[in-house]
Amino acid sequence: MQLTKRAVNVDRSPMTLGEKIYLPAIAKGLKITMGHIFKKKATVSYPEQTRPFSPVFRGLHVLNRDEQGREKCTACGLCALACPAEAITMEAAERKKGEEHLYREEKYAARYEINMLRCIFCGYCEEACPKDAVYLSETIMPSNYSRDYFIYKKEDLLITEEQMKKRAATGKG
Amino acid sequence: MADNIKVTIDNITIDVAPGTTILEAARQIGGEVAPPTMCYYSKLKGSGGKCRTCLVEVSKGSEKDPRPMPKLVASCRTGVMDGMEVKSMTSDKVIDARKGVTEFLLLNHPLDCPVCDQAGECHLQDLSYENGSADTRFEFERRTFEPEDIGPNIQLHMNRCIMCFRCVFTADQLTNTREHGILDRGDHARISTCISKALDNEFIGNVIDVCPVGALTDKTFRFKNRVWFTKPVDAHRDCPTCSGKARLWMRGEEVFRVTARKDEWGEVEEWICNTCRFETKDAKDWVVEGPTKVNRHSVISQGHYAGKVGTAKQPVLIDKVIGKQPKLTFDIHSESEVNKPNIHLSQIEGPAHSDDFNTPG
Question: Do B352 and A115 touch (CB under 8 A)?
Answer without folding.
Answer: no
